[in-house]
Amino acid sequence: MSDRKEKRPNILFIMSDDHAAHAMSCYDSKINETPNIDRIAKEGMRMDNCFCTNSICTPSRAAILTGTYNHVNGVKTLSDRLDGRQQTVAKLLQQDGYQTAMIGKWHLGHGGNSDPTGFDFWSVFPGQGDYYDPSMIEMGKSITVPGYATDIVTDKSIDWMANRDKDKPFLLMCHHKAPHRPWIPDKKHAHLYEDLDIPEPETFNDDYSNRASAAAAAEMRIDRDLTKNDFKMDPPAQLEGAALKSWKYQRYIKDYLRCIASVDDNVGRMLDYLDEEGLTEDTIVIYTSDQGFFLGDHGWYDKRFMYEESLRMPFVIRYPRKIAAGSVSKHMVLNVDFAPLFLNYAGINVPESMQGASFHSILQGEEPAEWRTSMYYRYWTHLSEHKVYAHYGIRTEQYKLIYYYADALGTLGSEDESKIPEWELFDLKKDPYEMINVYNDPDYERVVAVLDKELHRLQEELGDERFVYKG
Ligand code: CA
């Protein structure tokens, strides 16, 4: 428990949308540089195994606010709205004397019980929001703000910090829309990377053999499923096959990275503001994203799968009073842990109802007496837009077991067309890119048995229901 006599830290939580860790230089990106986000890692800790519990926007946001899994907070798919009557980290901090603000992408529904609660100030995009001259809902009132979304969210965040009550600590959730599709860069970065080729990832030409059916069935292929709207022009007529696929990747990834360049600049503005105001020592700064993203990995864009590129959230954190500069952790932390972490730093008891755990001791370089060695994941959105099968699974340090139960189960935003369930097992040590399903390999029979047991233990502990196939 934190000592309440200590000065309570401010919490600046900067979250972007769909920014994969492998598009940040502090995570050894091979495709771009993010000097400002890197500053947080250099002056604090980089977490290498931070995972989301459901790799899609709305559900991850609900997990972060409530500290609960999606079968508990009720936000399983993009079609669900957050019922704001439940407990959230923002409410608890506000009740305990924090000033709280939510600026940018909310994406948890509007009206009824779904507007932001627990915030002294909120100014959010309706739905996905627009990159240019976006509409915003500010404290219930619709406004239109001229300019580029990433700059606007930063301007509003800095304004709010400047006008806050300086006698109280604050929680500021600064949520960028970028780099979500459609990838529309700002004018300043529109020509970045123009004269160079961005390298293609190792698994760019994955043919989805040696896997369950789900990978081949997914409709998020760069060569087939991106559209003219994504490229903003027709592909050159003479291109075909591999050359055309490469052209499409370059169009996609460059715009994606240009959107990130603006996010990185604006993170720099926020850090500079903290320095200028003398707030650096007393402020926890986090940069993360609601989930990962496929950057041509497996030939894909988008997320949803429990595969590494989509499962992993970037997470860098700086708090000079408690976290050693330049530290790195491999401990497994989850989006449901963020709320308990904030509460712990604020000296507030974590309610029993929250399912995550504070990882403050890990951040301080200690080895916690007990910490998870496996994590539970569930993607509820069956089929729908990108035709990914509903699945659940667990990941341990070395293995990942996925069960594509492939049934809508009446979930809102899913398509009611079940498939025959299938399993996948990956040995992440031998096969880090998850290209070979070893579920039916006799050498892994014992591993499967152990993981299957652990999967069901986790489901029981977290109160989720096991799927029973009726044929
Ligand atoms: Ca997202």
Terminus-to-terminus distance:
50 Å
Beta-strand fraction estimate: 15-25%
Q: CATH superfamily of the largest domain, called what?
A: Alkaline Phosphatase, subunit A
Order of H and E elements: EHEHHHEEEEHEHHHEHEEHHEEEEH
Question: What ligand molecules are bound, each kind once?
Answer: calcium ion
Radius of gyration from the alpha-carbon trace, in angstroms: 21 Å
What is the count of β-strands?
14
CATH class of the largest domain: Alpha Beta
Shape: globular
**How much helix is in the residues?**
25-40%
SS summary, helix count: 12
Short recap of the structure:
By secondary structure, this protein is α/β, with parallel strands linked by helices. It has twelve helices and 14 strands. The longest helix is centred in the middle third of the chain and has 36 residues, at 241-276.
What would you note in describing this structure?
- With 471 residues, this protein is α/β, with parallel strands linked by helices.
- It has 12 helices and 14 strands.
- The protein has helices spanning 35-42, 57-66, 70-73, 89-95, 149-162, 213-217, 228-231, 241-276, 308-311, 338-345, 360-363, 445-462; strands at 10-16, 45-51, 99-105, 121-125, 135-138, 141-144, 170-175, 283-289, 315-318, 327-334, 374-379, 391-396, 399-404, 422-427.
- The strands form 2 sheets. The chain has a 10-stranded mixed β-sheet, with helices on both faces.
- β5 and β6 form a beta hairpin.
- The radius of gyration is 21 Å and the shape is globular.
- Calcium ion binds next to loops.
